[in-house]
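Collaborator request, handled under Task 6.
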Amino acid sequence: MPAPALPAPALPEPALAEIRLEAVLHALADPVRLRIVRDLADGHSEMSCIAFNLPVTKSTSTHHFRVLREAGVIRQHRRGTARMSALRREDLAALFPGLLDSVLAAVGRQPVSHPPA
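Structure tokens returned to the collaborator:
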């Protein structure tokens, strides 16, 4: 009988005490990253990276996900061959009350921004 599969470890991310406001604000300052955060906040507990309809190349989207993860905005883990992303909403709310909700509300009031081709 094969051994039960262990859950895939999460990709490196800062602990709650290591999340810095300036890193979060930098991560949220890019239209593509804001789009990722908005999509995750729209009722998805987690999404596969390929489920996002981003106007950038795969390598550029990988960069954007890494910036968000390293800033502490999202967490990621592997599920088979997929990389799953989830918003760290509770962690961000504990550290910076109202920040994420304010940013998402502001994004909702403006048209979706697309980076130049």
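The cover message to the collaborator said: "The longest strand covers residues 74-79. The chain has one domain: 16-108. Please let us know whether this matches your experimental observations."
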